[in-house]
Amino acid sequence: MPIVIYTDGACSGNPGPGGWAWAVAPNGEPFGVGSESTSTNQRMELAAVLNALRSHADTSGPILIRSDSTYVVYCFRDSWWKGWLQRGWRNSQRQPVANRDLWEPLIEIVNQRGDVSFEWVKAHNGEPMNERVDQLAVAASLGVA
Questions:
Q1: Confidence of residue 14 (pLDDT cuts 50, 70, 90)
Q2: FRET label pair with 121: which of 56, 63, 74, 127, CA 20 to 30 Å apart?
Q3: The CATH number of the domain where 43 resides is what?
């Protein structure tokens, strides 16, 4: 049975003050939060996953990341990252990959572990853990976390 970690990012404006959060199901403990004074929503979504995995570096067994970010989930589901590496960190439009400074360590951790999977969850749909990380991320973006 995998450890299930919910992640979310939030931004007050895009760009603007950003916050990220992760929490372990089923009860939301442990959890982590952080912020950046100027960020984007996608960057905060990535930061949430990266920090969740870093916080579980010494945890053995599979990890399931549940995220409402298609940006994060599709990257791994559809192996976008493989194309980025083949194209020298360029996306399919031959532009530099945004947030490469977060993608590189995240992809490295996922590949090193070999037991991380991703699942998309609809945002603002009443799922308690998704709502919890959303509230934590918004609070972090507003400086009240």
A1: confident
A2: 56
A3: 3.30.420.10
> SS3 for 79-113, per residue?
CHHHHHHHCCCECCCCCECCCHHHHHHHHHHHHHH
36 is catalytic: no
- Give catalytic status of residue 9 as yes or no: yes
Q: Is residue 124 annotated as part of the catalytic site, yes or no?
A: yes
Q: What is the pLDDT of residue 135?
A: 96
Tokens 């089923």 correspond to 26
Q: Domains in the chain: how many in total?
A: 1
Annotated active-site residue 34? The verdict is no
- Whether the model clears a pTM of 0.90, i.e. scores above it, the answer is yes
Containing H/E element for 131? helix 128-141
For position 55, what pLDDT does the model report?
97
Query: Catalytic: 45?
Result: yes
Catalytic residue of the set 19, 34, 45, 56: 45
Host domain of residue 68: 3-141
Q: Residues, the chain, total?
A: 145
